[in-house]
Amino acid sequence: MIVDAHMHVWDRLHGRIGGEVALTAVRDGRVRVGDEERLGMPAYMADCNALAEYIVAEFDAAGVDAGVVVQEYMDGEQNDYLLEVLERFPGRFFAHALPDLFALDEAAAEAFGLFERGFRGLKLSAGHVAGRVLLDDPRLLAIYERMEHEGLVLAADLAEGEGQVVELERILERFPSLRVAVGHFGLPTRGGWPGQLRLARHEHVYLEGGGLVWLYRDEGYPFPGAVEAIRRAIDEVGAHKLMWGSDWPRTMCDFTYRQSLDFVHAADGLSDEEKAAFLGGNAAHLYGLDPPAKRRQVVPPITEG
Fold this sequence. Notes:
Layout: E1 3-7, E2 14-17, E3 21-25, E4 30-33, E5 36-39, H1 52-62, E6 66-69, H2 79-88, E7 93-95, H3 104-116, E8 121-124, H4 126-129, H5 141-150, E9 153-156, H6 165-174, E10 179-182, H7 195-198, E11 205-210, H8 212-215, H9 224-237, E12 242-245, H10 257-265, H11 272-287
Parallel strand pairs: 1-6, 6-7, 8-9, 9-10, 10-11, 11-12
Antiparallel strand pairs: 2-3, 3-4, 4-5
C-alpha cells in the first residue's frame, strides 16, 4: 500500500501567513502574498484550486492508494470542503481538521465541533503561530486529552529550528499516548534536527516526509540528500516511524508528482522492507487505512520505451 502522508486540497484560497499577511489567488497557479506575486502551484491550475479530483488522478497514475490531507492557514481553512471530499472519495483520503488557534478562547470548542462532524485528526499549524501561541497553552489541553482518549491523530508542522520542540515534549509528557505526525520530516535542512527528529523516539510519534523534495530542491532529482536524511532517520528512530509525503501541489512548482515518489523507489540506500514501510505501511497503520482490494498499477508514460 502506498500512502501520501502530507498533501493539500482546497476549493478556495483565502489564507494568511502568520495570521497577518494575506495569501490570495490570482490565476494560472499564481498567488499574491501580501504585495508580492508568486507561483503557488503548477501554472496549469488556471483557477488556483487544488481540487481533490486532480490529486486522485495523480494517485491513480502513480499507483498511490490514499492521501492524508493536512491543512494550512496560508490556504485558509477547508473544513467544509474536506468533509465533502471524504464523502465523495471513500477510502482515498484521511483529512485533518483545522481550528483557529489565533482565537485561543474558542479553539477547544471549535475543535470538538469538528470532531463531532467526523474528523479523525487535527492539524496543528504550529509554525504559523510561533511566538504568539504556546502549543501547550492551558486552553488547548482539553483538545489533546480528547484526542488521546479517542485515538485521534495530531499533525504538527513545527516552526523552523527546535524552538517548539520543548512545547510538544511537554504535551507528550502529559498525554503519552497521543498519536502525532511531525511534519516536513522535522525540517532537517531548516535547523529542525536533531530535536524534531528525536520527537519520534516517543512511542506514538511519527515523522512524515511531506515536501522532502522541496527541502532538497537545490539538488534536483533523485535527491541524494533526501535519501541520506531518510537513512539517518531510520538509524535514529527506526524505519517503522517514518512516512512519505509529497506536499502536493506546492512542491509541484519544481518537480512532478511522480518524481516526489520515484526517488524513493530508486534509492539504493534503502531496503525493500524500509521502502514499503516508508511509502505506506506506517501511514496505513497510524491512520487506520484499509488496503485496496487489489494492488494499484502504475500507468506508464507515453514517453517510456
